[in-house]
């Protein structure tokens, strides 16, 4: 009898389900964690801003101007970052590392600024940090998980919500012992350490992965197609309006708590953290629901809910009433951003996913850079309650823009589930 030798099992191909699948989930964990770091610093700043306003005696318009500066420069770099991410994907790790490092630079420079103009310029660097994170990270996730886009983008958002929750609590506690200048300078040091950690973790998570580079002709063609895509343009508008409301909320709610209600910084940080804490649970759930039943059926009710609740921030009594309003808003206020992002990426080609994110965030910046200034003028003339009514108008307008949107159902994945629809 002829002796046979056992043959070894074939090695999984690079595009197979086994090792690459594990690598994809490792990449998701790394990107969600890095997203949390950027949001930790981003959401700590509104609590610091309330202290800066109190210490320097800034007007409501000046306070709005600092937040507008943060979003304005960020918006200016959104499109270039998206372009680099799509056409030079091997540079994504560098962009993501720099994103975290920019927060460290900003937190070092703001306390040293000798004038309002230079302070605004230093605050603006935080916007660059935010804009350097979202296009490369979300485009990577969108292309790695096309059939679970809503869920995965929501999980990425959960990482941000963890940072949104920890940042205000941590900085509020620090402000009980340090001045706002000291708290910012101490906080800057970990940002540089974490930036290096993000670089090494991403190199490991992306090891062996094939970079999906878009050719410039294909990129240009897909971009022109997106520019003529009316449903996508409506999502861009709706996302911008939602961001205008959120920018106003996160600027004037901490100031209201500190100035009008005279809460100490730790309590202010707790309320700001609560505004996003429940999103840790709601974002994945709402993402799954949007994958299963369509984005519009989830995002419109969420936007309307935030709109109706916003004026109650002023009218609710301090204590359980205010806590209930803030907690309920926290279920929807940040999750809606993730679902609008997923909807926008549903409507554009795979070649321009990072640029799609860049365009959406550029729209967000355009609206959110002007909104705090408008709200500041309203507050100066009509009182702080005007800011909360302005928030309500922005969120309701976003829902109205999305409401008539009609999108054909997307092709089904191998599991038979729709990939996402409006």
Record keyword descriptors for this entry.
mainly alpha, disordered N terminus, disordered C terminus, globular, 0% strand, 77% helix, Growth Hormone, Chain: A, 422 residues
> Per the principal axes of the C-alpha atoms, what is the gross shape?
globular
Helical fraction: over 70%
What is the averaged pLDDT score? Answer: 81
State the end-to-end CA separation. Answer: 65 Å
Could you characterize the architecture of this molecule?
The protein is an all-alpha fold. It has a single domain, classed as Growth Hormone, Chain: A. It has helices spanning 19-56, 60-87, 92-109, 116-144, 149-174, 180-205, 216-227, 230-260, 265-277, 279-293, 296-309, 312-315, 320-330, 335-346, 353-382, 385-402. Mean pLDDT is 81; it is low at 1-20 and 409-422.
Describe the structure in brief.
The protein is an all-alpha fold.
Helices and strands, with pairings:
Layout: H1 19-56, H2 60-87, H3 92-109, H4 116-144, H5 149-174, H6 180-205, H7 216-227, H8 230-260, H9 265-277, H10 279-293, H11 296-309, H12 312-315, H13 320-330, H14 335-346, H15 353-382, H16 385-402
Helix pairs in contact: 1-3, 1-4, 1-5, 1-6, 1-8, 1-9, 2-4, 2-8, 2-15, 3-4, 3-6, 4-15, 5-9, 5-10, 5-14, 8-9, 8-14, 8-15, 8-16, 9-13, 10-11, 10-14, 11-14, 11-16, 15-16
